Amino acid sequence: MALLFGKVAIVTGAGNGIGRAHALYLAQAGAQVVVNDLGGTRDGAGASKAADVVVQEITAAGGKAVAHYESISTYEGAQTLIWTALNRFGRVDVLVNNAGILRDKTLLNMGEADFDKVVEVHLKGSYLCLQAAARQMKLAGRGGRIINTTSMSGLLGNFGQGNYSAAKAGIFGLTRTASMEFQKAGITVNAIAPVALTRMTTDLPVMAGMSEDDLGPQHIAPLVGFLASDLSAEVTGRIFGVQGRRIFEYKMEQSDGVTKDTGTWTPEEVKAQLEQIGRF
Ligand code: NAI
């Protein structure tokens, strides 16, 4: 039997790139899919019916899907997203928070609107959809799967992406906390940090010479298939990197550090012990 037969999966930002690949993969694995996308440009402007094209692709291949066009960064958008799944397919088993935009600028050149908009779509959107989905999953009592999308930029930092890396690092924290809070309800929460050739990355110098075969979004979707399925019941709070055919894991680590016997530290002592403090 197909891996996700009988499950209902929601994918945000599924009209293009990685989200589209997730939606197609989950559908061919047997899930009924809500394809969300407001159909804007890379920086979040405008709107179109990009989700319809993916719904048609899924339907043409014999799968079941429905489109949802609202922005996931508003409370109403997140609520109607869940209602769409319930009205059309009767349940919600999987949420993939994938929608995203880019407004790259160095921090000294960044306007407040560029910071707010990127945080709103990535971080607030992930929170709103995660909360709406988890409430429904808890009510239904069947557990669930939530997969967030963070980024190397958020986990390690990246020049020119202060807004984006702040939002993606926030998604790391959201994932960790949600995995703890939802554990009792059997809802797993993990994140992926993908690298793939899409309209978001196609003009990056590091992508030069990369082929669709090496780095296409089709390499990302099977990891999400695993995290969406019963195979990953014990997997929660983890952050998986995926880049082409390589899958790896990110971890936040804490060093043992140095403890003073008595009194408080002086700045000079901190300087003297810095190497030991940072030893892993
Ligand atoms: P993309 O631009 O091809 O797709 C993003 C989709 O999200 C677009 O279809 C867009 O219309 C949709 N979207 C944007 N704002 C939305 C909103 N408010 N409501 C609903 N839909 C909205 O980008 P790509 O590369 O497929 O990115 C997917 C996710 O993966 C993003 O979260 C991105 O930050 C993340 N990511 C991608 C990497 C890559 O190498 N392509 C690297 C690291 C992270």
Q: What descriptive keywords fit this protein?
A:
280 residues; binds 1,4-dihydronicotinamide adenine dinucleotide; eight-stranded mixed β-sheet; 41% helix; alpha/beta; 9 helices; Rossmann fold; single chain; globular; 8 strands
Order of helices and strands: EHEHEHEHEHHEHHEEH
Number of domains: 1
Q: Structural class of the secondary elements?
A: alpha/beta
Strand proportion, as a percent range, falls in: 15-25%
Spatial gap, N to C terminus: 46 Å
The spatial strand order of the largest sheet comes to 3-2-1-4-5-6-7-8
Mean pLDDT: 97
- The share of residues in helices is 40-55%
Radius of gyration: 20 Å
**Would you identify the regions where 5 or more consecutive residues have pLDDT less than 50?**
none
Write the CATH architecture name: 3-Layer(aba) Sandwich
- Using the coordinates shown, work out and report the CATH topology: Rossmann fold
Count of β-strands: 8
CATH superfamily, by name, is NAD(P)-binding Rossmann-like Domain
**What is the helix tally?**
9
Q: Which molecules are bound besides the chains?
A: 1,4-dihydronicotinamide adenine dinucleotide
User: For this structure, what is the CATH class?
Assistant: Alpha Beta
Written account of the structure:
41% of the residues lie in helices and 15% in strands. Strands 3-2-1-4-5-6-7-8 form an 8-stranded mixed β-sheet, sandwiched between helices. It has helices at residues 17-28, 50-60, 75-89, 112-140, 152-156, 162-181, 212-215, 221-228, 267-277, and strands at residues 8-11, 32-36, 64-68, 94-96, 144-149, 187-195, 239-243, 246-250. By secondary structure, the chain is an alpha/beta fold. The N and C termini lie far apart (46 Å). The protein contains 9 helices and 8 strands. Helix 1 (17-28) packs across helix 8, helix 3 (75-89) runs parallel beside helix 4 and helix 4 runs parallel beside helix 6 (162-181). The chain has one domain (8-254): NAD(P)-binding Rossmann-like Domain (Rossmann fold). Bound molecules: 1,4-dihydronicotinamide adenine dinucleotide. 1,4-dihydronicotinamide adenine dinucleotide (NAI) binds at residues 12-13, 15-19, 36-40, 42, 44, 50, 71-73, 98-101, 121, 125, 149, 151, 194-196, 198-201.
